[in-house]
Amino acid sequence: MKLVVGISGASGVEMGARLLAILKRMEGMETHLVISDGAKTNFHEETQMDIADVEAIADYVYDDHDLGAKISSGSFCTDGMIVIPCSMKSLSNIATGNAGNLLARAADVCLKEGRKVVLVPREMPMSKIHLRNMYLAADAGCSIVPPMLTFYNDPKTLDDQVEHVIGKVLMQFGLKNEKFVPWDGTAKAPHR
């Protein structure tokens, strides 16, 4: 499988790095990474991670300003794209087809080619503009997977919450996160 991963300038860039690490362990997975300028700032502000270390996890890395990169063309076949986290700026660009940077262009290409695009929007509270853009993106074919807190799987740490979000994202592509704890029902069905 070949996936484009976009990390944009919303809070929660560590989720993008964690997703890349999980994808790296999957046999047959090829990742194409683009990190926005805002995300690079957030890596510095929110984490102890060096951008070079994050980029080293991916198989291929592109500059967000390189609109001539191979992921900017529909003739470069991928299985889709994940933008995690997805800033409201990136959401707006994707929802309206404003492909002024590589991250938005790669998403635009996936949509026009009928490939899956998963957006993990990070903002709270959301304005009517944010909600309208999410609707437009969903109407255009994107899956919207906000990083919502979970409680049914008895999380103990922030890592548990992040693993849950990544598990939900990967499910959109039929992939599994080994640390994802799914809902198991309110009562156990008897084994037959």
From TrEMBL:
- What is this protein called in UniProt? Flavin prenyltransferase UbiX
Residues that bind FMN: G9, A10, S11, S36, S87, M88, K89, S90, R122
Listed A to Z, the keywords are: Flavoprotein, FMN, Prenyltransferase, Transferase
Q: Does the keyword Phosphoprotein apply?
A: no
Q: What class of enzyme is it?
A: transferase
- What catalytic activity is recorded? dimethylallyl phosphate + FMNH2 = prenylated FMNH2 + phosphate
Q: What is the species listed in this Swiss-Prot or TrEMBL entry?
A: Anaerotruncus massiliensis
InterPro entries attached here?
Answer: Flavin_trans-like, Flavoprotein, UbiX-like
